[in-house]
Amino acid sequence: MASPTLADLAELPALVRALQARVAELEARARTPEVEELVDARAAAAILHMTPGAVRAAARRGTLPAVKVGRRVRFKRSALASSVRG
Questions:
Q1: Residue 45 contacts residue 74 (beta carbons within 8 Å)
Q2: d(CA 83, CA 54)
Q3: How far apart are CA 66 and CA 61, in angstroms?
Q4: Burial of 41 (0-12, 13-18, 19+ CB in 10 A)
Q5: What is the CA radius of gyration of the chain?
Q6: Domains of the chain, residue spans
Q7: CA angle 78, 82, 86 (to 5 degrees)
Q8: What digits encode the pLDDT tens for the residues 4-47?
Q9: How far is 4 from 7, CA to CA, in rounded Å?
Q10: pTM across the whole model
Q11: Is the C-alpha dihedral spanning 18, 24, 28, 29 positive or negative?
Q12: Which residue from 71, 64, 74, 85 is spatially nearest to 36, judged by alpha carbons?
């Protein structure tokens, strides 16, 4: 293996800074997971100007996307917002 040249050693601080920046970016991404806010049928009904029963019925029909959390049905706030926009 050849010894590093003076030019290689001159580039070392810039490489270290670039690696430190990338590590900081990855650590920040790991600390802030992408978490979607879920709401219950009552909150979804308020957003959609519907009754909670109509929201649950739409979820059963598959016309409103829903997520099962244990035995409960929850709705993604972003999906509700896009339903309102049409």
A1: no
A2: 14
A3: 10
A4: buried
A5: 25
A6: 38-85
A7: 170
A8: 787 788 888 999 999 999 998 888 877 766 778 999 999 999 99
A9: 8
A10: 0.58
A11: positive
A12: 74
Query: What's the rounded Cα separation, in Å, for the pair 44 and 49?
Result: 8
**Per residue in 64-80, is it b (16+ CB within 10 Å) or e — as a string?**
bebeeeeeebbbbeebb
How many other CB atoms are there within 10 angstroms of residue 34's CB atom? 5
- CA nearest neighbour of 54 among 67, 44, 39, 68: 44
Rounded Cα–Cα distance for residues 40 and 3 (Å): 64
- 80: nearest Cα among 34, 60, 59, 71: 59
CA atoms of 80 and 43, how far apart (whole Å): 10
Residue with structure tokens 């909670």?
A: 52
Closest CA to 69 of 27, 33, 41: 41
**DSSP three-state, residue 1:** coil
